Amino acid sequence: MKDAIYSDLKKFFGFTEFKGLQEKVIESILSKQNTFVIMPTGGGKSLCYQLPALMQEGTAIVVSPLIALMKNQVDAIRGISNENGIAHVLNSSLNKTEVKQVKEDITNGITKLLYVAPESLTKDDYINFLNTVKVSFVAIDEAHCISEWGHDFRPEYRNLKNIIARLGDNIPVIGLTATATPKVQEDILKNLGMTDANTFKASFNRPNLYYEVRPKTSNIEGDIIRFIKQNQGKSGIIYCLSRKKVEELSQILQVNGINAIPYHAGLEPKKRAHHQDMFLMEEVDVVVATIAFGMGIDKPDVRFVIHHDIPKSLESYYQETGRAGRDGLAAEAIMYFDPADIGRVRRFFEDIEDEQRRRVEEQRFNAMASFAEAQTCRRQILLNYFSEYKRETCGNCDICLNPPTSFDGT
Question: What is the pTM of this model?
Answer without folding.
Answer: 0.83
